[in-house]
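Q: Entry one of two.
A:
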Amino acid sequence: MQTDPSVYDVGTEIESREAAHEKWLDSVCHEEQMTIWSGEILGAVSEYIRDDILSHDVIQMHEAVQDELRSIISAATQPR
């Protein structure tokens, strides 16, 4: 079956925009930047964090903040 080239393929455009958005998101939310941002956020709330926190808990908090930051940035910049 031959496809008319004048027919607009919406699915392909959406996939292409999503792939471009994911590539952009990866460039903005790279590891070094995410470490900086999560450090700034945790630093700002550090007075509310208990004093006896273990180092592996700090690492888990950084990972949780980084995941949430990426999710927020992705949602805020999702192509429509």
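Q: Entry two of two.
A:
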Amino acid sequence: MIFTNSYFRAFVVCVGLCISVVLMSFYRYGVDYWSGGRTRIILSMLGVSLTITIGLVGSFSRRTEKPWPWGKTVLACFICWLATLLLMAFFVSTFIR
């Protein structure tokens, strides 16, 4: 069954997080916020954090006897996703000016 696959569960949660961030920024800042090079930076940061989070959470969940429940997967994905986004935002603000 596909819903018991650890990587699929992490993928579903991370895609939900990315969609919620994009929709929230549309709601808060409007369409003008997504112009120029800012769009590439935001989407690339979301994509990289999505890939890292899926790999880490899926791997750790896969090593256990049975797959993590959805609640634990959501919590682990959120923590890992937020940590990678904060690290990337720090590096972008520090080294790219």
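A: Comment on entry two: The CA atoms of residues 36 and 42 lie 11 Å apart. The longest helix spans residues 37-62.
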